[in-house]
Protein 1
Amino acid sequence: MIGSLTTGAWDATRNMAEAMTSPFRDPVIRLGVTGLSRAGKTVFITSLVANLMDRGRMPQLRAAAEGRIQAAWLQPQPDDDVARFAFEEHLAALTSPQPRWPEGTRRVSELRLSFRLAPTGLLGGLSGPRTLHLDIVDYPGEWLLDLSLLEKDFTEWSVRALAKAQARPGAEEFLARLKALDLGAPLDEVELKGLAEAYAAHLRAARDAGYSDCTPGRFLLPGDMEGSPALTFAPLPPVADAKRGSLWRESERRFEAYKRLVVTPFFREHFARIDRQVVLVDVLGALGRGPRAFEDLRQAMAEILSAFSPGRNAWLARLLGQRRVERILFAATKADHLHHSQHGRLAALTEALLREARDRAEFAGAETEAMAIASLRTTVEDRIEHGGEMVDVVRGRLDGTGRQVALHPGDLPEDPGRLLAPARAGAEGWPLQDYAVREFAPAPLTLRPGEGPPHIRLDKAAEFLIGDEL
C-alpha cells in the first residue's frame, strides 16, 4: 500500500510539473508502439519515421498532402537513461543492396522526431511556424504481458500458468521437476534455480510454437537481471499454510519482488506516460499456427490492453496524475502477404479479435481504429490460373531461402465468427481450410528523392495517430 501511494504521488508530481511548464515549451506527443514478438514493431517505427521525413508516399496524411509540414528532423530524445532507437542501422538493413530484416526489439528504446509546421488560423501569420515533437517509444514484446501481473497474486498466476503448461509444448521437464519437489520443505536454492530454468525453457518453446501469453516476460529476455532472485521462481500449486523460508513461500516472495522491481518501474516510467498507442498484431501468423494459437493471441491482447488507462486527456486529469491514452490504433501487420481484395476482411478479423479490449477502451473515451497495414511492402500482386480458376496471389522472395514464389494463403471469411468460434472452442484445426502463411524477405528498393520505403496504409495510420496535432 505504501509503495502504491508513493508511486501515485510521484506520478502526480511529475504530471503536475509537466502541466505547469507545458505552456512555455513546444508540445510533445508520446507515441507508444507495442505488440508481441514477430508483430513488426522495429520495422513499423523505422518505416514510419523514414516516411515522415520523406513524405512522397504519404498522401493520406493530410498535413503532408496540404504542405503544412515544412520540415521533419531527428534530434536527441529527452530521456537520457533510455536507449536511442537505432533508426539509421535499421533503415540501412532494409534498404541495402541485399536487404534484410533488422533485429527485433530487446529493450526499451526511444526516438524524437521534430516537425516545423506552417502557421494556421486567423492569427497564424502573426505567430509564425510552430514546432511539434513526436517521441516514439518502443517496448520489447516479451515484457508486455507482465503488466497484467500487477493485478494478480502468486497463487492466481500459478494456477493459470500451470493450466496453460499442461496443453503447451516443452513443459515435460518442468512438470516432472515440479512433481518431484516438496513445496513445503525449506528452500533449496539449486532446486529452485533448476525449476526456474526449466520453466523458462518451456516458455521459449511455447513462444516458438506460436503461443502469445508467456509470462513472466523477463524469463525470455532477462538482460542484466539474468540469474537474479527476482527471476528465479516458477508457478507452483497452492500449498496450505506454507511456512516462511519454504520453497513455496520464497517463490511467492520473489514473484512479488519481480512485480515491484521490474514490472512497476516499467509501467510507471514508460506506459503511464503514453498519449497515443499503436498495438501491432500478427493476425496472419496466429492463423497459420491454428485455432489454439489464435485464441491464445486473443486472450493475450485482452490482458495487455487491460493495463492501459485509455481516455481523453484533460489538463486537470494530467495535473492530478491521471494521464490517459487518447487514441489507440489496432493494426494487423503484414497485409502485403494478402491480395488487397482481402485487406478489409483482415481488418474486420482484427477488430473482432480485439472486440472486448476495444470496447473497453472506447467506453473510457479513447478513440480507436482497426486497420490492415504493411510497414514495408515486400510483395507485388498478380492473378494466376490454378485448377481451371483465376486466383489472386502475391509474389515475393521467401525469407531464409530467397526463392521467388506466388502465394495464395487462403481466403479469409467475410464473417470473422467462423474463425473465432472454433478458436474459442479449442478446435485442433480450422474447419474449412488451413492458412499457408509464409514469411517474405524485404525486396530490393530503389527510392527516388523525397520518398520513404513502400508501405500499405502507413499514411492512414499516421493520420489517425497524430494528424490532429499536425
Note: The first strand starts at residue 28 and ends at 35.
Protein 2
Amino acid sequence: MAEPDNQWGHEQISSALEVEQLDVNLYRSKTLYLPPRARGVFGGQVISQALVSANNCVDPAFSLHSLHCYFLLSASAAVPILYNVDRVRDGRSYVTRAVRAVQRGRTIFIMLCSFQRPEPRQCTFQLPMPPNVPPPDACEGIEVNYERLFKETSDPKVKDFCLTALEERRRSPIEVKLAGVRETEDGMPTFLYWHKARNTPVRYDPAFQKCILSYISDSQFISAARRTLAYVNQGGKGPTTVVMQTSLDHAISFYSDDFDCGDWLLYVIVSEAAASGRGSVHGRVSRERET
C-alpha cells in the first residue's frame, strides 16, 4: 500500500509541526507521519500540532507551563486532522485552552493546556542531571544498534525488523543517541538518551521550542514499560510478551523557556509500574552541561 502523500514533509521538524488555519479557532494538519508497523499517526506529532494550534490562540505574553492530553482513537495518516481550540479561560496570570482533534467526524484526541504570565523573579530549583553521563559525541546513534543486529543475525524476521527500524530513523526529524541504562536504588532500570531536532537552521522562539519538545517527549518513551517488564522478569518470574503498545494519556510540565531543541537534550526515562495491561512511564529532560 502506498504511503499518503502528506507524509513526505515529516523529515523537517518545522513542517512536521505545521498546521493550516481554517477559521479563528480551527486548524488542520499539513503532514502526518505513520511510523512503520504503528496503528496510527505518531502521538508526539498529534500533541505538538495541537499545541501549535493552541499557541496561535494565546497572547504571546503568556508562556505554556503544562499540558494534559488523552489519546482516544488511532489517527489515520491518510486524512488530515482538524484541531478545534476552545478558549476556556483568559485570566490576568493564567490562560487555559482545550484542543479537540477530530478526524472523519470522530474525536481522536483531547488536550488541556495552561499558560502563565512569566514570573522570572520567583525562586527556582531542579534536580541535577545524572552524574557521569557520556557526552553526545561519545555516544552511538540508536540506528547503529539496528545496523549491528542486522549484520549479526540470520533470522529473516529480525532482519526485517531492523530494516523497518532503520527506515523510521531515517524519516525522523529527531536524532537520538544511546547514553546508557542504569539501575535505580531499588534495582529498576533507567534509560538515558540524547535527543535533538535535525536541520534547525534558526533558533525558534520559546513557544515553538516547547512544541518541538512535546514531539520529542513521545520518542523512545512508551517502549520503556515493555523494556522494564522484560528486565524485571529476566529470571522467568512472569510474562514478558507485550502484544500491543499505545499511548493512553500524556502530561508535560515546563519549568524553563531557555532551551533549544536544536542542541542535545538528555532524556531520562523510568517506567514506574505495570499492571492490568497498562504501564506508567516518567521522563525528565535536561540540557547538556556547559563546559
Note: Residues 1-8 have pLDDT under 50 and may be disordered.
